């Protein structure tokens, strides 16, 4: 092979050429470092890796250059060229490349340029993986024998480090999550991963462990850092990497558990903020990891290192200490079938060994925290907390607690509670926005409690703690509440706190408070009375103050208590109605009489306190906007679980004063609370209080956007989402007052525009509570009638053009459109008729406003969004005649928008104004595309009683006509906006797939624009956009092929050459995209996931243009100067269209066959085609 040839008459000339190449690369590397003409320098370096067979030059540079960066680049060039040319390298060439890289790294093991050696080792690992299926077992063993000798220290410490470093690179390459791209199918990487795991991974572990053992004694006996420290650190790091392997097979080769799919918590509300990766290697690793004395040795090594932290070269954060602690923590994560079925005895013994060494990092907690505050590094303490988290993740609460009892007079829960109390104590002395070690420790320990109280296999069931665990949880929660109250009180007069904190505190604290809630529920018999006592004390203190005392501190404490209590009592809904927490259902002891149920007492006291905000005197005294935020948040969260729950309303004969005491005693605590707040007891009264409190936030707290946003988006939405509540909501006088105020009160017209939209949506959704559709529609007509009449009135003014630009008029129109959007988005079958009437009554008005406000982009956008949401909610239910009206209106709107060229971008604008104009136009066009997509849905979902086609209307014709109007406004520059781009290609792909016959009816201008955008989309960086374009091409090509095969026209003239809008002659669509698709597949970069979609497009394209395909194939073959390449390409092209019994029929089987053929074709030829 020319890359390795040498000698002969031209040796002198070849040497001069090699030296010239080396000088050029050295100069380029120096230029980059000096920032001198970096583009030219990068091009020079790139030319080396892209040149054919540059191996001799690269080897020459590695062996002779005095510039480290040049040697680094030469190693990279070997990698790039070898991966690219691997298919036509001889077996000897492949072996030589790997051997050279390994030999070079070991030969120069003592070099100070470690990054160069690491790069060469990495290249050797990548090449070994690339040839994993090509090298014989004997060849692999030859490589690994060399590595084994190196890693065991036979050739010295420096070579030993290189051997371990190579194994680290190799394991990284064979792990799918860290492997390098090689342009090969996923199956190749998976086969390599499986082979290494089954045949070599344990061997590597043993070599690495032995390497660490061989140098450990010298490290522990030395008073300063020695060369062996580097070797031991690398060995520990590699063992950790092996334990982090994505184990999927046990010792018998059977597929096991993927730790990355099941070993990490996926809870959205309580996701682990601290990384904890489970290690599940299977029973085949038991003797190596558990039965050996590796763990004892590792703990002894770290103990010896701890004693040396004051010596030169050693510290608590030195690399070897950090690596040792990480490995100890990872041993704590061992779980699964590596432990036998012995009731957990071996696992308990294993964890006890580890805890015996770790305990000194965290106990006693007060002494440890004091040392950290005095300047000691916190890393060891934090790692100890992470070790507890790992143990909590892999054990049951009972085993977890039992671990420490073997070496301490108390259990692990007591230590966990004490440790967290100490951390919180330190944290409370810090600034709230200062992320200190105590902040991180608290999060890790909270995750530990979460792992114990919500284990991965609990499936939402109840977790029973041992008595000591319950006591520890009670002690900790009590301390948490007291600390939070102290912190709240201390922050009352803190002027340094960012004002934004007031508005973000609820969401920012949510994750932490959810963890607090789990701890509280573990000791629910203590937590609920504790919260009740604190709430009662603060409520009483506020009333006794009577305005004479400053209530600020108490208000902050109440704010904090409401947040904590809300999390303890109820879970977040997340789109579903949350159930009463299991702990509250089963663990409240005194639940016999509802009035004495602790949860009822606590909930009732907070509701009564909220009701006092309706009193003007109390409201002015201490119900500040901030306190009201907490009240509204609590009522929203609490009402989703407890208020008029269907479970609590099942027995209509229930009464809180039931005479049958035995019946009451049989009711769980959860049922007691639900029935107390059901529709048959106190539920309706509480609902009325909640609505009146909501009204107060609108009327009595003007300008408080955050408070009013909570009321709109959380509280009121929570009420109308539940049908059983809506039934009673519409009967309340307070709800009627809210609806009347919304329609008539100026105060509500001054709300934030988005809040008005939300409130309109809520009020309309509540109509689902009426017993019949006529009542629901009448309610919506009355509610929205004032708004539609007002909008018609504005649009009918004779002097509209004069007054339209006045701020008051713009504000009124904006608010009306937002309200109409809200009502339109609330469309349901029961209220469909009235919402259609609402929209149809203002169609002409919206067109007038579109004309008048053509230069007001904000108004135009709101108007378009209203139309989109109204059409989207109505189109599926409309009868043919109504649909025709809507379609006619939409076309008029599109024409009007286009005729005014609204949002036209002027090149004379400044760059900032130009960007603003593009952004405004992007939003408008995206809304118009969504409008067309909504019209498309009529063909997919249609509940009307008659056919639209019978009335002479075709949805496909309408949408294509709409596209014809809209697409000229969509430039390639605007398609760079991701959302607009996706919406456009989604609609275009849908239309071309479902209605390909309509394409033949487009005029040349519209058709050319579609071709231009498809060409753009095929080269888009978003693979989803490329996929949609390929699907569209498949649809067009398959339609045309099937039509022409049956003697029809297909796409007619569009399939042949045509002239673009500039008058230039262009080849037909299928010829053009056959070239483009082949160019993409053979010569450009793309996601491997697109190969299937590309095959599905290419197959019918080839059938449509078989002559052109033969011509393009011949051109590719003739371009090959190398006869071997020419022969391979000829055979590959032949196989592409003939292998696997492929026929010319476009059916599912042939598509699958062509996919396989294309995959094999690309593997065979893509590599050398890209370098020739």
From TrEMBL:
GO terms for cellular component: cytoplasm; nuclear pore. Belongs to the exportin family. InterPro entries: ARM-like (IPR011989), ARM-type_fold (IPR016024), XPO4/7-like (IPR044189). Keywords: Cytoplasm, Nucleus, Protein transport, Transport. GO terms for biological process: protein export from nucleus. Transmembrane segments: none annotated. GO terms for molecular function: nuclear export signal receptor activity. It is found in: Cytoplasm; Nucleus. It comes from the Eukaryota. This is Exportin-4.
């Amino acid at each position: 092979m020319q890359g390795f040839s040498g000698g002969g008459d031209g040796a002198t000339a070849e040497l001069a050429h090699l030296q010239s190449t080396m000088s050029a690369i050295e100069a380029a590397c120096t230029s980059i470092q000096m920032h001198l003409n970096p583009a030219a320098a990068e091009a020079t370096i790139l030319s080396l890796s892209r040149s054919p067979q540059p191996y001799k030059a690269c080897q020459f540079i590695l062996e002779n250059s005095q510039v480290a960066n040049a040697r680094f680049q030469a190693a990279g060039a070997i990698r790039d060229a070898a991966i690219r040319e691997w298919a036509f390298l001889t077996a000897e060439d492949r072996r030589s490349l790997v051997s050279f890289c390994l030999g070079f790294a070991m030969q120069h093991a003592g070099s100070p340029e470690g990054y160069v050696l690491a790069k060469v080792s990495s290249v050797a690992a990548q090449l070994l993986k690339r040839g994993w299926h090509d090298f014989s077992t004997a060849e692999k063993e030859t490589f690994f024998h060399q590595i084994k000798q190196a890693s065991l220290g036979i050739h010295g410490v420096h070579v030993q480090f290189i051997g371990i470093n190579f194994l680290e690179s190799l394991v990284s390459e064979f792990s799918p999550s860290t492997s390098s791209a090689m342009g090969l199918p996923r199956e190749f990487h998976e086969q390599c991963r499986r082979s290494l795991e089954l045949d070599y991974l344990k061997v590597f572990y043993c070599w690495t462990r032995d390497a660490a053992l061989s140098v450990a004694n010298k490290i522990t006996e030395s008073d300063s850092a020695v060369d062996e420290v580097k070797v031991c650190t690398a060995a520990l790091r590699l063992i950790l990497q092996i334990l982090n392997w994505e184990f999927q097979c046990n010792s018998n080769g059977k597929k096991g558990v993927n730790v990355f799919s099941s070993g990490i918590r996926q809870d959205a509300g309580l996701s682990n903020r601290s990384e904890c990766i489970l290690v599940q290697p299977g029973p085949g690793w038991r003797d190596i990891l558990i039965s050996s004395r590796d763990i004892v040795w590792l703990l002894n090594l770290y103990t010896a290192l701890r004693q040396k932290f004051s010596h030169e070269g050693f510290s608590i954060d030195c690399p070897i200490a950090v690596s040792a602690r990480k490995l100890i923590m990872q041993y704590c994560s061992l779980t699964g079938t590596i432990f036998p079925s012995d009731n957990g005895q071996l696992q308990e013994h294993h964890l006890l060994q580890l805890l015996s060494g770790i305990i000194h990092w965290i106990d006693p907690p007060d002494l440890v925290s004091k040392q950290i505050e005095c300047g000691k590094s916190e890393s060891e303490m934090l790692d100890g907390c992470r070790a507890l988290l790992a143990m909590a993740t892999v054990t049951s609460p009972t085993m977890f607690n039992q671990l420490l009892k073997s070496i301490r007079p108390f259990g692990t829960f007591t230590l966990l509670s004490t440790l967290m109390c100490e951390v919180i104590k330190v944290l409370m002395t810090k600034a709230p926005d200062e992320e200190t070690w105590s902040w991180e420790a608290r999060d890790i320990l909270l995750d530990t409690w979460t792992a114990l109280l919500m284990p991965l296999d609990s499936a939402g069931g109840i977790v029973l703690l041992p008595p000591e665990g319950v006591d520890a949880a009670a002690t900790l929660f009590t301390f948490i509440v007291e600390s939070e109250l102290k912190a709240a009180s201390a922050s009352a007069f803190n002027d340094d706190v960012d004002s934004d904190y007031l508005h973000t505190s609820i969401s920012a604290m949510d994750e932490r408070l959810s963890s607090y809630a789990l701890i509280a529920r573990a000791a629910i018999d203590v937590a609920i009375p504790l919260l009740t006592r604190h709430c009662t004390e603060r409520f009483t203190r506020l009333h006794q103050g009577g305005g004479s005392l400053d209530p600020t501190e108490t208000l902050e404490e109440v704010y904090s208590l409401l947040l904590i209590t809300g999390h303890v009592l109820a879970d977040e809904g997340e789109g579903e109605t949350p159930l009463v927490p299991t702990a509250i259902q089963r663990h409240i002891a005194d639940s016999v009489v509802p009035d004495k149920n602790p949860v009822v007492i606590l909930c009732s006291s907070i509701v009564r306190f909220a009701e006092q905000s309706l009193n003007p005197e109390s409201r002015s005294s201490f119900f500040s906007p901030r306190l009201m935020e907490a009240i509204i948040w609590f009522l929203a969260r609490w009402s989703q679980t407890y208020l008029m729950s269907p479970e609590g309303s099942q027995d209509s004969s229930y009464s809180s004063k039931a005479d049958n005491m035995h019946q009451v005693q049989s009711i769980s605590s959860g049922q007691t609370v639900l029935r107390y707040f059901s529709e048959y007891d106190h539920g309706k009264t509480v609902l009325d209080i909640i609505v009146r409190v909501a009204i107060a936030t609108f009327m009595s707290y003007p300008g408080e956007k955050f408070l009013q946003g909570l009321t709109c988006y959380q509280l009121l939405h929570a009420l109308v989402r539940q049908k059983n509540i809506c039934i009673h909501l519409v009967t309340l006088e307070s709800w009627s007052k809210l609806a009347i105020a919304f329609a008539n009160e100026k105060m509500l017209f001054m709300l934030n525009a988005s809040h008005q939209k939300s409130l309109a949506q809520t009020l309309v959704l509540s109509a689902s509570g009426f017993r019949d559709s006529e009542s629901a529609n009448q309610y919506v007509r009355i509610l929205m009638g004032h708004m539609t009449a007002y909008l018609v009135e504005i649009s009918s003014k004779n002097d509209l053009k004069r007054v339209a630009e006045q701020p008051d008029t713009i504000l009124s129109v904006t608010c009306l459109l937002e309200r109409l959007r809200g009502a339109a988005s609330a469309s349901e079958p029961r209220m469909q008729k009235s919402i259609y009437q609402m929209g149809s009554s203002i169609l002409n008005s919206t067109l007038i406003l579109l004309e008048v406000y053509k230069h007001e982009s904000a108004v135009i956008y709101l108007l378009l969004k209203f139309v989109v949401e109204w059409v989207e909610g109505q189109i599926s239910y409309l009868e043919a005649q109504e649909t025709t009206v809507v379609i006619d209106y939409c076309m008029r709107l599109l024409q009007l928008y286009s005729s005014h060229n609204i949002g036209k971008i002027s090149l004379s604008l400044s760059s900032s104004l130009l960007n603003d104009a593009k952004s405004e136009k992007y939003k408008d066009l995206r809304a118009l595309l969504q409008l067309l997509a909504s019209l498309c849905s009529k063909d997919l979902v249609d509940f009307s009683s008659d056919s639209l086609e019978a009335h002479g209307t075709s949805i496909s014709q309408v949408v294509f006509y709409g596209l014809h109007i809209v697409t000229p406004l969509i430039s390639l520059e605007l398609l760079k906006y991701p959302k607009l781009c996706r919406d456009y290609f989604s609609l275009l792909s849908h239309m071309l797939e479902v209605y390909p016959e309509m394409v033949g009816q487009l005029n040349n201008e519209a058709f050319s624009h579609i071709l231009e955008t498809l060409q753009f989309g095929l080269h888009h960086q978003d693979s989803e956009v490329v996929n949609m374009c390929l699907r569209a091409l498949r649809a067009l090509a398959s339609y045309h092929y099937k039509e022409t095969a049956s003697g029809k026209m297909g796409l007619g003239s569009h399939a042949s050459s045509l002239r673009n809008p500039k008058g230039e002659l262009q080849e037909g669509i299928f010829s053009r995209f056959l070239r483009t698709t082949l160019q993409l597949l053979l010569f450009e970069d793309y996601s491997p996931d697109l190969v299937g979609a590309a095959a599905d497009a290419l197959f019918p394209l080839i059938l449509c243009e078989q002559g052109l395909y033969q011509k393009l194939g011949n051109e590719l073959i003739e371009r090959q100067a190398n006869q071997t390449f020419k022969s391979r390409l000829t055979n590959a092209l032949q196989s592409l269209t003939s292998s696997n019994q492929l026929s010319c029929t476009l059916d599912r089987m042939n598509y699958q066959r062509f996919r396989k053929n294309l995959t094999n074709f690309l593997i065979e030829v893509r590599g050398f085609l890209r370098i020739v």
